[in-house]
Amino acid sequence: MNNQYITKIVSKEEDDYDEELRFWISIKSTNQNDHNKVQHHPRTMKFCQTHSLIKKSTIKKMSIILIFMDYFKYCPWDGYRFSENDVQCFICRRPKYQLTSYIQEEQEQKKWEKILYEKQPYDDNYIDETFLQSVQKQDNTNNGPDYKQLISKTSDLIFAVNCVVFYLLSYFLMLHDMVNDQLQLYFWLAAAITCLIMFSVVKKMKTLEILSNFKSIGIYISILLLFAPVMQTVNQTYADNTIYVLTSVAILIYIFLKDYDYEKDFTELDVSQWASLVFSSLLASRLHNELQVFLMIFASNLLFIFVPILQRSIKQKYNSVFRVINLISTIGLGLSLLFFSYFLALLFFGCVFFITFVSPLQIIWLYQYKNTIRGPWDLPNVKQYD
Amino acid sequence: MVNICLICDFFYPCLGGVEMHIFQLGLCLIERGHKVIIITHKYQGRSGVRYMTNGLKVYYCPFIPAIQTVVLFTYVGTLPIFRQILLREEIHVVHSHAATSYLGGELLLHAKSMGFKTVFTDHSLFAFNDAASFHVNKILKYILCEIDHSISVSHVSKENLSMRASLDPRNISVIPNAVDCSRFTPNPSKRYPLNTINIVVICRMTFRKGVDLLVDVLQVICKQHPEIYFIIGGDGPKKKILEETIQRYNLQNQTELLGSVPGHQVKDVLNRGHIFLNTSLTEAFCIAIVEAASCGLCVVSTNVGGISEVLPKNMVLYADPTPEDICHKITQAIPIAKNFQVYQQHELVKKMYSWEQVAERTEKVYYNILQTQNQTILKRFKDCYSNGQIYGLYLMILLIFDLIFLMILDFLQPHKGIQKPGIFNQIYKNQKEKFGDHLFKADQQN
Predict the structure, then answer these.
(1) Which of B85, B197, B263, B279 has the fewest other C-beta atoms within 10 Å?
(2) Which residues does the UniProt record annotate as the domain Glycosyl transferase family (chain B) (predicted)?
(3) Quick one: CA torsion of B240, B244, B246, B250, rounded to 10 degrees?
(4) Chain A partners of B162 at a C-beta cutoff of 8 Å?
């Protein structure tokens, strides 16, 4: 049997022999120790030395192969009977000289992991299927804010606009001497006292506190009276047009930047409140006598700085009362504007309608374009210390 | 051999993560046989050309920093000097770092006009929903619309960069930062004070580093565990809050504020501790954690950004960014820290990160882009226009100005007239001991 094999190999054509040799060389030998134990078969040595391509290592391999090849007539794993030309077992595909080895499954490429501490057998710019899966895009599953809720929130804005229009109305009356100065004085003083009483009632203040409030208001009025002549002369040199432009800008700043959530403490003046002081002093410079100046500044302070404080406490408890007041004042102002010009009344009602009914629709329409992207790079909500 | 130009606003004498990254990358690329120069703006008392280790040439250009070491973005002001430098040194690749460094961004655009290949590395994460991020992202989108390749330091950073700048993710490679582990070796004998579990915190005291969380944690932990001692190093705008908290709750016995720690003393501070605490709110790749792990400390960190990719799960205790969870994890870490395999951890970390690997991967990026062809001007215009219909037109006008200015400069300062610089002679590399380098003989000192 031995001789048969060797003679067969030797007698083959050179090309076939090379192929089979290449086949044997491509299979790795697992037993390194056998190199030393086994002697090289002399016939193979002689044959191989004639071939210049064959290296010494392959000679060793060949001799081992040739010696071990006939040890197995049957495959020990599945009982397949080897025929003479068989190079490997037909069923389990093990090569004939490596029958004691376990079949090595093709090593699956190691799965890509999102780690940096190990060099992975992938390119640096490899894109995995988990790419961008941690990003959450907030698709608008809820259809935005409720229409009715938005309408109720616009009442704040309408109230601010009403205050401004009322102030401008009384200024206009004063400027053109349509109403007696004394009447205006009584009116505004009465208004101030009413506001103070409402404030005390809502906050449930004790008598001492109420009296101290009265005292502080008295001090405040006397200081204003002192400074009225100064306020009159401060902006007198400006031209009329400048005054009107600056006033309009200041009014817009007041309305847009007003703190409608009443979050801030009332110890510091907001930007919007400064703007209200600005436009009241600008308008006051056009008036004729000091009493009017005092009244206008007092009115502006009352309407734009003190009334929000009152508004905050009323809104917390008597929300519906506030809404009713709002509604009445809007209608009253609109009707009184009718006396002056139809255009103004139309403009006023148009504005109120737009703010109350049309802009909530706009917000709801815009909401479909809202696009927030959240991912692992967002800063978490942490309580901040200042 | 590739001639590389690294650009960043942040470099020595400023010491931080980005600066160290640029320095180490430059040195390792020189070791691999390339030529590296660095361009920054001038610092106090440093202006002109300086040579650093191994012939790393640094150009401290006379650009004036506008806000906190970042140069004001003047589109054409930097072009003449930059053109001179690139043509002198015969650069092939221009590599810019850091998204907030506008010197790098501007010079990237000029390099593209001159026909060089450009690479950008991003070191930080930006969210999408605050006002500062909008603007930074918009400008980054413009700077990166024509870039050849980008590199990010972690997988999360890659996702973030591809979303911010609308880049093709196949053009972004992930090459992590590294740490020089030979400089951060463990030494348990240096743990001081004795008989306490020492927790080390070293960070810049800003909002992003989670100082508010640390304040809450201090109060709870110091009360629950009297055997703990906090060693807090670092300086910044929020340091006052820490001092106030310590005074208010009488924690002077259990805490120690070190102030700003210079770079060469960080290792000593780390060696004093058992546990390292990191409370950052967002982090692309936290080098501090790796340094601490290399020094053999047990690490407790918030699980934000790219931190979970940096070290294997058995080396770090991850906590949610809430004070309660951090305290819980510290309580878990205390018994672990008492019997900790310090030297084993150092060996493990040593195998994970090295600057040589970073340089090798970066070099592969350079070779890849050098094989691609240059873009035509029409393609560049299209890229500009992709930024927006009106904004794109404005950017195209800027690009035209750039090209016209280049033509004028070519006429006034022609290429042939530019002098070539002297080459740094690296003969000492062949015989290191002759020049005093005995590292191959002596053991590493602790």
Answers:
(1) B263
(2) 197-334
(3) 160
(4) 132
